[in-house]
Structure formats: structure tokens, C-alpha cells
Amino acid sequence: MKQVVRFASTPGGRIAYSVVGSGPPIVYLLGWVSHLGLAWEMPSHRRFVEALAQDHTVIRYDKLGCGLSDRPREAFTLESELETLDALIGHLGLKRYTIFGSCEGGQVAAAHAVRNPDAVASLLVYGSCARGGDLAPDPVKRSILSLIGAHWGMGSRVLADIWFPGAPAEVTDMFARVQRAAATAEMAAALLDMFYRIDVADILPAIRVPTLVLHRRGSRAVPFELGRELASLIPGAQLVALEGRMQPIYFEGEDIAAATILSFLRDRAGGTGRLSTDPRLTDRELQVVAHIAEGLTNAEIARLLGVSVRTVDAHVEHVRTKLGVRSRAQMAVWVSEQRQSRGLLRR
């Protein structure tokens, strides 16, 4: 898909945004610092967005102060972020949409959902937390902010190591370069400090829209326990644990993450998420492969179905053989294709 970047006026300045795909809109808040141009050059990010864009219109934007948006910025508060988001939604004339926030974008998306329950069809939150202050002890937060301000090159590499633990050097070097291109040292520190200061714990129980919370099980940047707490504070929220340690949703198992989101949104549109019958698979195998597409581990599927892990292992092997696939990612793709071609069973 081709990306076209446009601009919208907000009270704080012009923001750059991109619209990809067709269908019901998803407004995607990218998180801390971003750069629409450089992000589109990352194959994994582009694949993730394009997967969502098969069924939806995906709208992404660089927040004020970074990327292709206006760089000068004075306000660094939750209110200023909500003001920018409201301006973009008004500019696009959106009446009903899904809001999807990553990192502190998840906090902003949640606050927006509280204020706009009639406009927000669904809320998606990834890798976020209720209180930014819980991300690290105060001395650690001060040290990171000081390092970014004093030496952005070193600071960007430290943050890349936190976001990509154990990743090859070329991955962390690439992400460090993108961070430095996306924002100045002063802006990066100010935006990270804003994340540390935002606290939405008190308003999360007021959310009244269908909510899916996704979180990386092994994330160092935002520990899984913080995502689990956030989900517990939102009435009726579903929590999905994604395997891996990389913080960006698009850098590890991006196909499974996209399939999980699409499955949730299709359910909200009236289906149950169950696959139509397939002569190759038994009903139990269909249940197992559908849960695999949602990002669940074999142990989690076993608990959900009330069977042993060994039984689920056997079902997974049978599915691999019958479908002629090797990986769980290929199973997730098969599930997505089946739902698109055959539709969903109704309750």
C-alpha cells in the first residue's frame, strides 16, 4: 500500500497524519516519539498496518513536537494530547471509529473513550499502563531523562536496549537512529517525562466501550503486570498476552497481533469469532486454531478449554498437518483468510 502524508491544524500547531486502507476507521496513536516517513520504511511496521488496513481505514499521526508534525511545542499534558486528537478527528469528520493507543497513546486513547462513549466503537490499548509513574523507580526515571538531555546518542541506545532486549545490534542501532530523527533530545525528554506523569487510573472504571488490552508478556519497557492492572480497571476489558520481549507491537509476531485485533473488531461487529466449519478440522481443532490466532499460548488454551496442555499440543500438531503449515503465524493467517472468505457464525 502507498502512504500519503497530509496535515491537519490543531490548537498547538500542524500535525502530520496518514490514511491507509478502507473500511471502518481505526485512529492509531503511535506512542512516545514517531516518524511516519521512517516508520513506513520498516517492513514489520508496514506489514502490521497493512494487515489492519485490509478491513479498516487506519489513521496514524505524529504527535506535536516529533516526526513530520510541527516541532515547536509548549504544552506536555494529557489535556494537550486530547486536544490534538480531538482536532484531528474533527478535521477528518469522523463520527464513529475505533481508537487504538500504544504506550502513553493507550492512556490518551482511554481518556478519549471516557469522554466520547457514543463516538468510540471500540478501544484498543497496547503496551500501556494506568500510571506512568509506575514504569520505574523515581531515581531511574530521573537518570534516563538526564541521559537523554545530556547525550541523545547514548540515551537513544539505552532506550533501544530497553525496548529491544536481546535484539541484534543492527535492530537496536536502527531504532536508536529513528528515535534521534523523530525528535530532538529536549523534545524526547519532555515527551517521556509526560508519559511518566500521566495517571488515568481513576478514570479507567468509567470506560463503557468494548475494550481489548494487548501486552507483551516479556516487555522490559512496560512490565506485563502494569498492562494486566490496566485491563483489570476497565469494566469488561479483554486481556491478551502476546509472546516475546520486544516492546513495539509490530516488531515481534506482528501478524498474530494484527489477527487478534481484527478478530476482536469482527466480534464487536456482530460475529462470535468462531470459524465456519472446515471439513479438514474437527470442532475442537477449529477452537484451538482460533485461539492461536488470538495470540494465546497452548497453556492458556488448555486452561480456557479445560483440557491438558498435552491435549492442546496434539491438536496443534494435527492442525499443522491438515493445513500444511509450520508456524503459529501461518495458522493465524489461515484464520484471517477463512473469516474473510466465509464470514462468521452468529450466536
Would you write up a description of this structure?
There is one protein chain. By secondary structure, the chain is of the alpha/beta class. The protein has two domains: 5-134 and 200-268, 3-Layer(aba) Sandwich (Rossmann fold), CATH 3.40.50; 283-342, Orthogonal Bundle (Arc Repressor Mutant, subunit A), CATH 1.10.10. It is built from 14 helices and eight strands. The protein has helices spanning 36-40, 43-53, 78-92, 104-115, 138-150, 152-163, 169-182, 185-197, 224-233, 254-268, 283-293, 298-305, 309-323, 328-342, and strands spanning 5-10, 13-21, 25-29, 57-61, 97-102, 120-126, 211-216, 238-242. It has an eight-stranded mixed β-sheet with strand order 1-2-4-3-5-6-7-8, sandwiched between helices.
Supply the number of helical segments.
14
CATH architecture of the largest domain: 3-Layer(aba) Sandwich
Q: What name does CATH use for the topology of the largest domain?
A: Rossmann fold
Radius of gyration, whole Å: 20 Å
Structure in a nutshell:
The chain is α/β, with parallel strands linked by helices. It has helices spanning 36-40, 43-53, 78-92, 104-115, 138-150, 152-163, 169-182, 185-197, 224-233, 254-268, 283-293, 298-305, 309-323, 328-342, and strands at residues 5-10, 13-21, 25-29, 57-61, 97-102, 120-126, 211-216, 238-242.
List the helices and strands and how they pair.
Layout: E1 5-10, E2 13-21, E3 25-29, H1 36-40, H2 43-53, E4 57-61, H3 78-92, E5 97-102, H4 104-115, E6 120-126, H5 138-150, H6 152-163, H7 169-182, H8 185-197, E7 211-216, H9 224-233, E8 238-242, H10 254-268, H11 283-293, H12 298-305, H13 309-323, H14 328-342
Parallel strand pairs: 3-4, 3-5, 5-6, 6-7, 7-8
Antiparallel strand pairs: 1-2, 2-4
Helix pairs in contact: 2-10, 3-4, 5-6, 5-8, 6-7, 10-14, 11-13, 11-14, 12-13
